[in-house]
Amino acid sequence: VNHAALTALVDRWRPETHSFHFSFGEMTMTLEDMAMISGLPINGRAVTGRVSAVNWRQWAGILIGVEPDAPLEGKVDASKVRHSWLKQVR
User: Fold this and answer.
1) Do the Cβ atoms of 87 and 38 come closer than 8 Å?
2) Can you give the pTM of this predicted structure?
């Protein structure tokens, strides 16, 4: 991991515009950029819809083919999927 590069990118990220601001201009992450980084396909139907916190794991399993593990004992269920987990299972 190049910590200097990561720090530079974090310093240049503007959440209000969802883009990086550099001295030479602006760069925005596209869907294709995320597909390349994550390895997830972007063809076909979108993974969207209403999912209650009660059954979100089951819906994730139906939509992406892998159901996230239950939280560890004593941990809060955050109802989210980490990018590192997606990379691991895809």
Assistant:
1) yes
2) 0.41
pLDDT at residue 72 greater than cutoff 60: yes
Cα–Cα nearest to 60, from 47, 42, 78, 46: 47
Q: Look at the chain and report how many structural domains it folds into.
A: 2
Query: What domain range includes position 63?
Result: 47-89
Residue 28 dihedral angles phi and psi, to the nearest 5°: -115, 140
Q: What is the Cα–Cα distance from 23 to 29, expressed in whole angstroms?
A: 17
Q: Do 29 and 23 contact (CB within 8 A), yes or no?
A: no
Tens digit of pLDDT for each residue in 3-58? 887 788 788 888 787 778 888 888 877 778 777 777 777 787 766 666 567 778 88
Quote the CA–CA distance of 44 and 17 in Å, as a whole number: 27
Verify that 60 and 24 share a domain, yes or no. Answer: no
pLDDT at 54 (0 to 100): 76
